[in-house]
Amino acid sequence: MQRFPLHIDGQTRPASTGEWFTSDDPFRGGPWAEVARGTAADVDDAVQAAHRAFTTGPWSQLTATERGALLRRVGDRITEEAHRLAEIEVRDNGKLFAEMYGQTTYLAQWFHYYGGLADKIEGATLPMDKKGYFTFTRKEPLGVVAIITPWNSPLLLLSWKLAPALAAGCTVVIKPSEFTSASTLELVKLFDEVGFPPGVVNVVPGFGAEVGGPLVEHPLVSKISFTGSDTTGRKINEAAARDLKHVSLELGGKSPNIVFADADLDAAVNGVVSGIFAATGQTCIAGSRLLVQDSVYDEVLERVVALASTARMGDPMDPETQVGPITTPPQYDKVLGYLDIARAEGATVALGGGPATRPECGDGWFVEPTIFTDVDNGMRIAQEEVFGPVLAAIRFSDEDEAVAIANDSRFGLGAGVWTRDIGRAFRMSERIRSGMVWVNTYRAVSFMAPFGGMKDSGIGRESGREAIGEYLQTKCVWINIGAEVGNPFVLR
Ligand code: NAD
To answer: What is the pLDDT of residues 344-355, one digit of tens each?
Structure first.
């Protein structure tokens, strides 16, 4: 089995205890790699290294332009390694090679974009109401950033944080998911290769309680940037609040995909199927609630079921495969559990509804693409995130009802609206409380476009210009250029 040691201060080494844990291949249903089992002591080493790099190391002496050049260089190296990195991701998380390769070839854009932005971080000179002062702001990096990532798209979600954090001048300690650490540990080697100084990018793999907890609580960590479940996000937010640390959270969703009767139904049906069954539904922006207007409900459902039933399952490395396995055994059990819950709540199974036992699924953890009809938005299947290939279909009569159902959720990450009416498209995108609204498309992302959630779906935004602000703080500098010496006992 291949071994993946941890990565601290430019060195790879085993964990302080010498212990390893195994990582499973979801398609073959067994272990394929061993990963160093990080500890609180390893976290401390990594954070100290990141802190040295931030305060006194060569990184702290680089100009913003030099930082940007390094980021662009690593982007180029990532592109050269995209195929290999995607293969590692598929071994670890079982998603389709086509999807993971699509992601790894796209990653470089985040490093190029933020590399370009690194030397465009500007403060302002401020007009003043008081005479005799020159007053300006500086945008300064926050310091050591803890990056904690989930298992579904390990490198993509990491890059959304890593590129802006480094462009801002921060240093980082990464804690990848215990289910998918390998690709992150391979990626960071590329940073050493292109000349990032030691200590700027560190990785401590391991478990939430053993590595994530100590990392979040480390006094030298200034900011936690987290993607994962809202349960863990809440814990992290509480711990960060105790120590007054900055935090950004990208959490889950229960996103509505809303089809109006006036929509191009061919496009809508395709978008609905891709919104929930691509990536086996294991994406935070899965369109897991299908809202369909009464007059086309039966037709749309019939067509969605027909298209979804053609999905080919099997080896994620096979380019013909369309739906891969569930990534982890606990997630597999969780998805199957929700199928029972939905049935018990009175939802009707229109497709699937259980584990996939097709011969091409081998020993993998596969669930049949599943569609429930007769769903009421109050049911758990409509309110809770399943994170699997499970769609809940709900009827609505008009725009107001569609908005009411869409917003009747504690989540607010994404939403899809399918309509040919431009006025309706604008009205719906204004009224829906979610961080992204896609009109006549779904699940589009870009390094240029802000991504993040409202309500329980998170705090902060990734990608786009504003994301770099998540890693900066403002300092205001006042210079006396001739202000009068005033009364010492009153505010100047
Ligand atoms: P998770 O919350 O279980 O784990 C995420 C990470 O947090 C892992 O690295 C885990 O080890 C770590 N962790 C666990 N307990 C911790 C603790 N006490 N302190 C610090 N770290 C801890 O989530 P997951 O199951 O890996 O990922 C699936 C979830 O992620 C879904 O809910 C999904 O919606 C969400 N997600 C959100 C986005 C987004 O951008 N909004 C993207 C992808 C996934």
So the answer is: 999 999 999 999
